[in-house]
Amino acid sequence: MFVNHCHVFPRDVKAHGSLEALVETMKECGIDKAVAFAPFEELMPPSYGDPNEWLAEELRSYPEIVGFASINPILRDSVERLEKAWSLGLVGVKLHPPIQKFRINDPQAYRFYSKAEDLGVILDFHTGVHGWCLLHYRPLLIDDVAYTFPDLKIIIEHVGGRGMYEEALALLLNKKNVYAGISSCLNRETHKAWYIGGEKVEELVYLIGEERLIYGTDFPYNDAEEIKRDINTIMNLNLPQHVKDDILGGNLEKLLSRQ
User: Fold this and answer.
1) CA 237 to CA 247: how far, in whole Å?
2) How many other C-beta atoms can be found within 10 angstroms of the C-beta atom of residue 30?
3) Which fold has domain 2-257?
């Protein structure tokens, strides 16, 4: 298995979210490879400097982990930060509008999106209710980005969640360069705001095809037991085995190989 959407931190910032803890969780869950996101600069002590540099340096010791940067796209130097992250071997960027406080289709972000398209960088967007102004990060705003940059590779996490699933579905139906991130949306009890459930995963396969669904763990906010529950849910869907295998790593591998 090759999973997406793992948040990692220095051990002294969040011990249960360290790279060592991620590797142990992967072993417990039978996961071979994972994508790890650099911590959001907005949530890190300033003394750590650039979180992307920290992650790139740490990953020298973890060949089974692929690194994604964390960059606010409306910063004045966002393009330079992206170029630097790419040069360090970070092949994607995690974007979280409610944390980073940017509107998805803010014109200031378009230079960043253009450079990401040129480099082949994957942009992984948080979608779903997260306590900020919903009009700034509703899934339909990503349609504007995907239309303007048709070769940009985009993953939308949580598929809009319970509250904005229909918008996310419209986006996925409309834009072939957008992928559905199946993350923290399979457990009705633990993820009430982001729950879409197994039936909607089956619906997504039927409506957009099997090639654009990617499972992510949301580590460390989901522990090993929750991740194993997710994997079991996917393995018990009414889908052919090869489709389940694609959701659990095949599609992510193919997306990364297109760089």
Assistant:
1) 11
2) 11
3) TIM Barrel (3.20.20)
Q: Label residue 202 exposed, middle or buried (CB < 10 Å: 0-12, 13-18, 19+).
A: middle
Domain ranges of the chain: 2-257
Which tokens go with 104? 């998805």
Of 236, 251, 229, 228, residue with least CA distance to 31? 228
Structure tokens of 96?
Answer: 């979280």
Tens of pLDDT along the chain (259 residues) come to 999 999 999 999 999 999 999 999 999 999 999 999 999 998 888 888 899 999 999 999 999 999 999 999 999 999 999 999 999 999 999 999 999 999 999 999 999 999 999 999 999 999 999 889 989 999 999 999 999 999 999 999 999 999 999 999 999 999 999 999 999 999 999 999 999 999 999 999 999 999 999 999 999 999 999 999 999 999 999 999 999 999 999 999 999 997 6
Q: Are 109 and 144 in contact (CB under 8 A)?
A: no
- Whether the pTM exceeds 0.90: the reply is yes
